[in-house]
């Protein structure tokens, strides 16, 4: 039922069932609102406080954890979209928080700008991506949160604060990757660069060769990542590099893009996962075929078109960050577990690297990092796979991605994040009544 409640001008509905993109979290909401501007965000938060309801902002629902779950008021930020200003001299753009990354990429491109780095999915909102620590790959490039220059945030008392390194610096440092625990971010100023092209080289290789030269590959390329197909010794590698100014764009032919990215990577992959779910014993053979189905290809295109991969097959995911030198050890331990247990894994395992940064809750805080991500088809049982990976990760000092499946709590996380208590102190100051809390945040930050 849709209605207007007590003078609130945003669209409001009552008693809504909600689930996230991957189907790993669900909730029954007391109310949903779609505020059209910052003033309506303020109204919603104050109204929720008066009724004793908790509040959570939501973007695309692409996190696999309960970071955005609430039984109170869900603020859908889909109406707070668009680039507000671009300052090419300063290399920054101010953007409304609910802007989806795929919309932001196109709007920046229209002004000859781009984000310096991206992950491989662009369905998230900017605030959601920053708030959970979305990162890309590249040993000399940080994640999105490290590129935040300033932001506006509505706190639990309804006050609006502009924060930056010079104004409310502690709130700024915490809110750059705030987990939605501090307030509702409404505007973000992010670093941008002149639009650029990337030359992409993708090809199948052997796992042994890739691990033997992983450090060299990471250092020699702007962006290097690979996908290992469990139950095989095969990987798909991706090397993306900036090209000299004036280089012509040479995108994939339409037929090749359709074949690889639509038919093989999505439609055929959906079919093979359904088969593997019904007949698990076929998984190894399917992976062996899949690891060789995508042949080598090269192309040059706009950065965001190279970074982003269409992901239509739904899945659940866990991703952990480790010291860069741990990549081979962690992956080989995981491979040993897969090889010695009767669990069939149909999704490839993704491996990336990233630069160190200074964001308090960033998985790359003060260390060059490697990332290993595991997935399962959304129709499959989680099984022992995720628990086994987490056990390996903990033994290597891993930091779990905040938006992806893990079971760690505040006691563990305090030990792997040097500025954990600084973040909690900011939270205690700006949200003492825990207006923006939920069970996930109670676990990872403490109640």
From TrEMBL:
What residue stretches are annotated with the FAD-binding PCMH-type domain? 24-195
Which of UniProt's keywords are assigned here? Oxidoreductase
Database matches in InterPro entries: ALO_C, FAD-bd_PCMH, FAD-bd_PCMH-like_sf, FAD-bd_PCMH_sub1, FAD-bd_PCMH_sub2, FAD_lactone_oxidase-like, Oxid_FAD_bind_N, Vanillyl_alc_oxidase_C-sub2
Which Pfam families does this one have?
Answer: ALO (PF04030), FAD_binding_4 (PF01565)
Note the SUPFAM superfamilies from the entry: FAD-binding/transporter-associated domain-like
Instruction: Please report the name of this protein according to its UniProt entry.
Output: D-arabinono-1,4-lactone oxidase
Q: Which organism is it from?
A: Terrabacter carboxydivorans
């Amino acid at each position: 039922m849709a209605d207007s409640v007590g003078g609130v001008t945003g669209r409001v509905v009552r008693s809504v069932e909600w689930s996230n993109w991957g189907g790993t979290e669900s909730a029954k909401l007391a109310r949903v609102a779609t505020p059209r501007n910052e003033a309506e965000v303020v109204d919603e938060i104050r109204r929720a406080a008066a009724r004793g309801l908790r509040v959570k902002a939501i973007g695309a629902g692409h996190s696999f954890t309960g970071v955005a779950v609430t039984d109170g008021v869900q603020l859908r930020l889909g109406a707070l979209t668009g680039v507000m200003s671009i300052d090419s001299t300063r290399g920054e753009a101010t953007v409304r928080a609910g802007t989806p990354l795929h919309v932001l990429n196109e709007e920046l491109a229209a002004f000859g700008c781009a984000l310096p780095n991206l992950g491989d999915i662009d369905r998230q909102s900017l605030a959601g991506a920053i708030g959970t620590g979305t990162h890309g790959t590249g040993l000399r490039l940080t994640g999105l949160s490290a590129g935040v220059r300033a932001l506006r945030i509505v706190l639990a008392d309804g006050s609006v604060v502009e924060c930056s390194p010079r104004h409310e610096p502690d709130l700024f440092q915490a809110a750059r990757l705030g987990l939605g625990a501090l307030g509702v971010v409404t505007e973000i100023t992010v670093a941008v660069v002149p639009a650029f092209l990337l030359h992409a080289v993708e090809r199948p290789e052997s796992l042994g060769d890739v691990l033997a030269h992983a450090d060299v590959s990471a250092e020699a390329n702007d962006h290097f990542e690979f996908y290992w197909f469990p139950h095989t010794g095969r990987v798909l590698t991706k090397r993306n590099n900036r090209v000299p100014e004036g280089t012509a764009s040479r995108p994939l032919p339409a037929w090749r893009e359709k074949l690889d990215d639509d038919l093989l990577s999505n439609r055929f992959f959906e079919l093979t996962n359904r088969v593997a779910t019904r007949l698990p014993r076929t998984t190894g053979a399917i992976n062996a075929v899949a690891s060789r189905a995508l042949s080598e290809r090269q192309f040059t295109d706009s950065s965001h078109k190279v970074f982003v991969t269409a992901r239509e097959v739904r899945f659940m995911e866990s991703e952990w960050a480790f010291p860069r030198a741990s990549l081979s050890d962690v992956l080989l331990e995981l491979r040993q577990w897969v090889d010695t247990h009767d669990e069939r894994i149909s999704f490839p395992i993704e491996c990336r690297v990233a630069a160190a940064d200074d964001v308090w809750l960033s998985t790359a805080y003060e260390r060059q990092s490697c990332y290993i991500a595991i997935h399962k088809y959304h129709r499959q049982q989680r099984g022992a796979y995720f628990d086994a990976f987490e056990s390996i990760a903990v033994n290597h000092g891993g930091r779990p991605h905040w938006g992806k499946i893990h079971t760690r709590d505040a006691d563990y996380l305090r030990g792997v994040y040097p500025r954990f208590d600084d973040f909690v102190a900011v939270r205690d100051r700006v949200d003492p009544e825990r207006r923006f809390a939920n069970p996930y945040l109670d676990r990872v930050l403490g109640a």
